[in-house]
Design goal:
By secondary structure, the chain is α/β, with parallel strands linked by helices. It has two domains: about 1-225, Vaccinia Virus protein VP39 (Rossmann fold, 3-Layer(aba) Sandwich), CATH 3.40.50.150; about 310-353, no CATH class. The chain has eleven helices and 15 strands. The chain has helices spanning about 30-40, 60-70, 80-90, 130-135, 150-155, 160-165, 175-195, 265-280, 290-300, 310-315, 345-350; strands at about 1-5, 10-15, 25, 45-50, 70-75, 100-105, 115-120, 140-150, 200-205, 210-220, 225-230, 240, 255-260, 310, 335-340. It has a seven-stranded mixed beta sheet, with helices on both faces. Strands 1-2-3 form a three-stranded mixed beta sheet. Helix 1 (about 30-40) packs parallel to helix 2 (about 60-70) and helix 8 (about 265-280) runs antiparallel to helix 9 (about 290-300). The radius of gyration is 21 Å and the shape is globular.
Length: about 350
């Protein structure tokens, strides 16, 4: 065990490079955890109760308790690591701004409680799918759900059978797979929510290639839009309108999904987070600039389906690749990606191809 420090918290964990590690620390997700803190802190009301279903070392939950001051009670749960969580909580006891903290070692798939939680976090190794039904039994219509998926091979199209088995959707490896994966994940969450008479609203997401993380709140009224994407098998053309043949080259269109066709984040949530960050830059130390860059880019992004990349267009037309700075509507999901509401045929014409 090594002693680490992240944000305001000191904690024990094992080196992430050790294959045998059960309580490992991944410093590459510090930005993700800081975004989580900022998201909770920017909410207008306190989270009375929180449940972290896969606590690991407890670093995420301890940072939420210590740095937001928004929780009155918080439960750290992990079937494998409850002892080290208790040790880390004791180490930071004076910093955890929470009236009631407890540690449990339940199987998250069958977690039983008599309470409704204001905030539930699901961050397993692999897919969150097996744990969503349990989570929705513990959520109310005013609750927040945060989930992570690290099975990106399935969601991004490299393991299509796994995606169908876990998420009941067909994925496809494309230039915009990063967005397709997010939309497939949101679709699956929406289906489970609706089986519990709730409808989701995606608030914000985080993606780095190794994981997808999304945050939701809920309504009993507005139902989200789920459907399919259609991708040409020969050219970059894609659409969410049902088509058998490509408008650009006449080739066959292949179906992807079902997936979420609505907005994948809420611009007002992003704006609130930016406003809070502007007034409290010092609270996020070395993550301030990265958080501001990410949220500012997301705030400006067109919240529409799909994006194109300069490399796929250059490859298809066998032309030199355009500089990404030429395009106004960039996306946070690809360094070479840009958004547009034009069809591929219209885009190609505008680019002079």
């Amino acid at each position: 065990m090594e002693l680490f420090k992240e944000g305001s918290i000191r904690f024990y964990a094992e080196n992430q490079q050790l294959k045998s590690a059960h309580v490992f620390y991944n410093p590459n997700r510090e930005f993700d955890r800081s975004l989580n803190v900022l998201f909770i802190k920017s909410k207008s009301k306190a989270m009375l109760s929180g449940l972290e279903m896969f606590s690991g070392s407890g670093i995420r939950g301890m940072r939420l308790c210590s740095e937001t001051g928004m929780f009155k009670s918080f439960i750290f749960n992990d079937i494998k690591t409850s002892n080290i969580i208790s040790k880390n909580i004791s180490l930071n006891k004076s910093l955890l701004n929470c009236d009631s903290i407890s540690v449990s070692a339940e199987n998250s798939k069958y977690y039983k409680a008599h309470n409704i939680y204001d905030y539930i976090d699901i961050d397993p190794f692999g897919s969150p799918a097996p744990y969503l039904n349990t989570a929705f039994e513990l959520l109310g219509k005013d609750s927040i759900l945060a989930i992570s998926a690290t099975d990106t091979a399935a969601l991004l199209g490299s393991a299509q059978r796994a995606c169908m088995r876990k998420y009941m959707a067909r994925s496809l490896k494309t230039s915009y797979s990063n967005e397709l994966g997010i939309r497939i994940l949101i679709k699956y969450v929406s289906e489970i929510a609706e089986s519990h008479s709730l409808h989701i609203k995606p608030l914000i997401f985080d993606f780095n290639g190794n994981f997808i993380r999304t945050y939701f709140d809920f309504s009993s009224r507005t139902k989200g839009k789920v459907g399919y994407a259609y991708q040409c098998i020969k050219c970059p053309s894609r659409t969410i309108e049902p088509k058998d043949k490509c408008d650009f080259c006449g080739s066959k269109m292949t179906k992807i999904g079902p997936l979420w066709l609505g907005k994948i984040y809420d611009v007002n949530t992003v704006k609130k987070m930016l406003n809070y960050l502007d007034k409290n830059e010092k609270k996020f130390n070395q993550n301030t600039d990265a958080l501001k860059e990410y949220l500012s880019a997301l705030y400006k992004e067109m919240n529409v389906f799909s994006y194109y990349t300069t490399s796929e267009i250059a490859s298809f037309f066998k032309r030199p690749e355009e500089k990404i700075n030429k395009f106004k509507n960039r996306t946070v999901l690809s360094s070479k990606g840009f958004k547009t509401n034009l069809s591929f045929k219209e885009l190609a014409s505008n680019l002079g191809y």
